[in-house]
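Worked example

This section walks through a single chain of length 167. The input is the sequence exactly as stored; nothing has been trimmed or padded.
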Amino acid sequence: GLDRARDRFRQDIYAPSTRGSKDAYLSTWLKMHSIGFWGAPIPVPAFPLTLEVIEMVASLFKAWEYLSFGNYMSRAKKEHLRLFPSGPHAWSVALADAQSDACRSVERGVGVARQSLPLPLEAVAAAEIPEVELSPGGPVGGKDYVICGSLFLLREIEISAARWAVS
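Given that input, the structure is written out below as tokens.
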């Protein structure tokens, strides 16, 4: 019924392949928070987000030249909204301004994302790679996985979940 429809709706907000990265964004945010407030005379909780928390954590992301700070900030905001949908800690204009300022500062001057060299598929196809498991539980026909993943622009997490059988 309606409960099942709501569960399916919530489950499909994010693709299964992105759930891990969303968790990783939050985990990294929390690690940066712990580093930033290490040894504080009064413990500073990671949530609710405050102007001080955003500035401290963003400062560390900037110091370590993270290229996609906006993803981490967005995930932290989403967690804040989940924990504090209303009340005295509800998301405010001041927090939105702090978010905008932090993203602008952290990403200024960092440069473009690292560009990877193209994968020479001809060289992969010509390589002498045995058609056996290269690691326990790994795919059989690793060369085929590399070529297929490249042709369909699959990322590591997507190709690692691929399954096919030879009939």
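What to look for: Helices lie at 2-11, 16-36, 51-63, 69-83, 93-107, 121-126, 142-151, 156-160.
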